[in-house]
Amino acid sequence: MQAEMPARKINMLLDVWAASLVGSGGQLLFTKHTDLYCIIDSTHIGDIKWDSFAIQYTGEEPNGAPTTWMSDSYEVWYHDPHEATHNILTGLDFTDQLDYVPYWEYDVSNDERHWQDFMTGDWAWEQVDGIISDNPTITGATLVPIILSSDKMTMLVATGQTDYYPLYPSIRNVHNTLCHAHCNAVALIGFLAMPKTMREHASTPAFHKFNRQLFHLLLTQILYSLHHAMMVPEMVLFGDNYYWHIIFTLTAYIADYEEQVLLLCSHEHCDTIIEELKLHQLWVTYGIVGDILPFTNDFPCADIHEMLSPDILHQLTKGGFKDHLVDWVECYLVHKILDDIDQHIPAVAPFTGLWHFPQCWHFKQWTGDDSKGLVKVYITAIEGHIPKDVVHMFWAFLKFCYLHYHYLICQFSAPNGLCSSITELKHIKAIKCLYQCTNCFQTLRKMLLINQRLNKLTAVHADFKGCGMLNGTCLSQAFEVLGIIEEGADTADNGEEQTASYEEESGESVDDLMAIDAQVSLACKYREIHVYNSACSTFFTPSNLSGIYGMCHEYICSAPMWRNMGPCFDCIFIITDPQVEGMSGLDVTCYQGILYSCAVIHWFDHVRDGPDPATGMWVVHPGYLRHNL
């Protein structure tokens, strides 16, 4: 699990291992890589077989030779989603990060409600009330919300391109941090078919209809094993070794705009309209595809009109900012002014939470993180070059992009939204890394086999760890067998790296001014003073769930030479008035890193009492008064 390597390198390591056992007369567990693969394949823990079926067009064919998409057979590979969700629920890695019941969380100090994990949202609470009112016998069962996501992706190689259409489910009893991380809270359960045809037939109504029908039919076929457990609770052994009654429900579908069009083939409450009007009138007047039913019609308590969520990554972050606003500014300005903006972007002072773009902003491929980082810097670089109303529009977009949709935050308790960035992250581990392990020829079957083996290894690792079989290291285990006490063993806990808590264990806060004065006075008594050119600040950011439970960290640099490119002195915040909220209680400083018995900083003063009316950002300038030094 710690290293993935090809068969040739596995054989090489096994040869080295065999050579080390020659003198002691030991026996090798595996003689070659095929022995290792056979052991993994014979493991039953986490074993979910890949299955497949083929589907083909059976409708009316035009006069003459049928087009290729009508005669082609489409192969679909899938996991049983029922078994896949059971594997997630029984995973020992999630036992302390599972919510079994919906709840509302409040701050005891001000009675404000908090939205952080899915089960704290309004949707879970309302859904449980609705299910119980319809079927009181379900009372006491644990609701398991399933969120689906799919996204087409292309792997480019020298010989052409290979397209994949993966389908991912995730259960939202787990905390939101797990779904945004590279972990098995989001599973790969299938590869959907992608019909292709010649350009002359790609825009025909018959091909569009077949695409919609195929998409919904595949989803129904793959997910149908969950149908029974959506109506009758079933008993499942969770990772905490307790049995729970559970009932599944389809909650949301994460998709980009193109897939949203495929999914939302009708309007809500349109049954009456479909009965009264013809198919052509439905499409032209109301945009309703009257002869296609969404896949949610086959599952209880599921409504495709309520399941779709905005695609924040592609529609807002990349689409709204990069593809629309930035291109708009480029068309408005001349090249000379654009070059001046290019000089402003890398000149932005290093600051906590701000990205640095030394090569300006001419990216070949924009990622979601690139767009989110650049939007904060871009608004200050364009000020003065374009009308204030345009700058104000950028500020409004920035606020909207980070606030997302208030309704969805309250419903799904997702400050970062049900964003397709979750799908993009899963692509890396489930598709891209597996593709690189193949020889780029007939890759799908090879990727399925690698995926199945990795899932087994992950499940076996969690099982071994839960049984206490992986405590310590190989070296500490050998010392224990020989009766030797390992040096420094008392400072380690099960061989894991020790990390400091972000909470102070002592009663005195690190922000106490008297404590800081005492530390400076103590440092003056000694001639030996260690100078560190960086410090790490750990803090809580509920709107950024990339860290565990919203905990993030930033490095503050004060280096006379940074990567051989000159000095780097970061700007930092200092709390000067703890009684005032927001920026009004903070001052901005720049740590200069000069060697004295205390830190030497340069203060920055606020230009005005509030944010800049055009950009919505606080503006500061160096303070030169004596009392600011």
Outline: globular
Q: Got a strand count?
A: 18
Q: What's the average pLDDT? A: 78
How much of the sequence is in beta strands?
A: 15-25%
The radius of gyration over CA amounts to: 29 Å
Q: Please, how many helices?
A: 21
Estimated helix fraction? 25-40%
Poorly predicted sequence stretches spanning 5 or more consecutive residues: 489-516
SS-based class: alpha+beta
- Biggest sheet layout: 7 strands, mixed
Please report the distance between the alpha carbons of the first and last residues. 54 Å
* Order of strands across the main sheet: 1-2-9-8-5-11-10
How would you describe the oligomerization state of the chains in this entry?
single chain
